[in-house]
Amino acid sequence: MAAVDIDVPVETEPKIGNQEDLERLAEGFKEQGNGFYSKKDYSAAFNYYTKAIDACPRNASYYGNRAATLMMLSRFREALEDSQQAVRLDDCFMKGHLREGKCHLSLGNAMAATRCFKKVLELEPGNREADQENKNAATLLEYERMADFGFEKRDFRKVVYCMDRALALASACHRFKILKAECLALLGRYPEAQSVASDILRMDSTNADALYVRGLCLYYEDCIDKAVQFFIQALRMAPDHEKARLACRNAKALKAKKEEGNQVFKNNSYEAAYQLYTEALMIDPNNIKTNAKLYCNRATAGAKLKKFNQAVEDCSSAIKLDDSYIKAYLRRAQCYMDTEQYEEAVRDYEKVYQTEKTSDHKHLLKNAQKELKKSKRKDYYKVLGVAKNATEDEIKKAYRKRALMHHPDRHSAATPEVQKEEEKKFKEVGEAFTVLSDPKKKIRYDNGNDLQDDGCFDGGDFDANNIFRAFFGGHGGGFSFDSSPDSGPGNYFFQFG
């Protein structure tokens, strides 16, 4: 049986017979590309310019047109390649040199951009666009110089300022973006720094600098384990990345020292913990959040060692680094309470309660306010010279001693000023004994209640002599001191009526 040929229509590119036909076809593609370019349909324009290049790959203008399209699509590296190819094909192609310069400028290479713009001015003296772009390149170089100086002096705000202005001229420069992000991280503006680094990583997931900055943000936010992962990844991409290497080493050392301090603290080795936290604080002064925690931890160890003043200083250092650090305020407030600095304690507890209105914080504030109120009254324990947990017998013995010491009759030969002062002290001793010897009054006094408001003590009707006579058993005031020249200052005898 004879074979049957079946014709199947197949779509094929039109066959071009000679170079002239290729050039005509390429010109057609170029005109179509121009049409789409004028309509701002840059993707379609790119496709037709590519077809024109495929048809006539030795035509400089086609590469120049495609470079212009790629620039509009912000694909500056590809546009740079097309511009460079255009001027390789035609060194007198002015637009090609101009576009190459603009690409270099957008990518942050001001020196290369300057060479291109000077070439344009050689080809076309007085070209205003090239002259302006040349000035922009000089401005960019100056911002780079200022930024380098600022970074060296650790003036990170100045670097961010310079990079913002540099990026207005070189919007596609990853190097400027990375430097800005790093400085934002060093300034504690972590969300902004992360955003810049993440944008770069979306375009280039292997960018070691962006990985480093991303890790730096995590490191400074005290997410040390995650930070180490990014530093290690950056080092995989760029084994010679010195900043990532140093940051990784610091992160690991900081974590290890802090954890060691926490462990010995749990084992009640407070001196060792204090020393370890001190060593950890020396690792990286730039790590604000971790150092704030370390200061607070050291304050806790210091408080355990009764180093209250140092503990207060450490808490203040923690708050200076992180003014939202509630634990530092609480620790400092407790140290103030322990050292009877109640006004300062109230101030810190008020700050805490304004931030976190919990019942526990409210209770701490009220207790500090009560102690502050108590501290402003006469301290009857100090008047008698006894501890706040003194027994009834200790209070009586203390009253006997102080009352005899300050009794007016004992100072009858003294100057009027001394007599007045001793009489005042005698009365205070009587007041103190009246309150502290009465269980109900003592409880109210210890609780911070105002005894006069409660009707438990009326200072106006108080008579210290009556308390004295009642204590010593006298009925008619028959008590006198022997103030003869032969008697000692503490001699006295009783006369009962």
Keywords:
497 residues, 2 strands, Serine Threonine Protein Phosphatase 5, Tetratricopeptide repeat, 1% strand, single chain, two-stranded antiparallel ribbon, mainly alpha, Helix Hairpins, 24 helices
Any overview of this molecule?
With 497 residues, the chain is mostly helical. Among the domains are: 259-375, Serine Threonine Protein Phosphatase 5, Tetratricopeptide repeat; 380-494, Helix Hairpins. It is 71% helix and 1% strand. The protein contains 24 helices and two strands. The protein has helices spanning 19-38, 42-55, 60-72, 76-89, 94-106, 110-123, 128-152, 156-169, 174-186, 190-203, 208-220, 224-237, 242-266, 270-281, 288-304, 308-321, 326-338, 342-355, 359-375, 380-384, 392-406, 416-436, 439-446, 464-472; strands spanning 479-481, 492-494. The protein has a two-stranded antiparallel ribbon with strand order 1-2. α11 packs parallel to α13 (242-266), α14 (270-281) packs antiparallel against α15 and α18 packs antiparallel against α19. The N and C termini lie far apart (161 Å). Mean pLDDT is 88; it is low at 1-13 and 481-497. It holds the Pfam family TPR_8. Residues 379-449 form the J domain. This is DnaJ homolog subfamily C member 7. Keywords: Acetylation, Chaperone, Cytoplasm, Cytoskeleton, Nucleus, Phosphoprotein, Repeat, TPR repeat. TPR repeats lie at residues 26-59, 94-127, 208-241, 254-287, 326-359.
Strand fraction equals: under 5%
Could you report the average pLDDT, rounded to the nearest whole number? 88
Low-confidence stretches: 1-13, 481-497
Order of helices and strands: HHHHHHHHHHHHHHHHHHHHHHHHEE
The fold-level CATH name of one domain is Serine Threonine Protein Phosphatase 5, Tetratricopeptide repeat
The strand count comes to 2
Q: Which CATH-level-2 architecture of one domain?
A: Alpha Horseshoe
Radius of gyration over alpha carbons? 43 Å
Lateral strand order in the biggest sheet: 1-2
Sum up the overall morphology in one term: rod-shaped
Q: Helical segment tally?
A: 24
CATH superfamily of one domain: Tetratricopeptide repeat domain
InterPro entries: DnaJ_domain, J_dom_sf, TPR-like_helical_dom_sf, TPR_rpt
Pfam family, one: TPR_8
GO cellular component, one term: nucleus
Subcellular location: Cytoplasm, Cytoskeleton; Nucleus
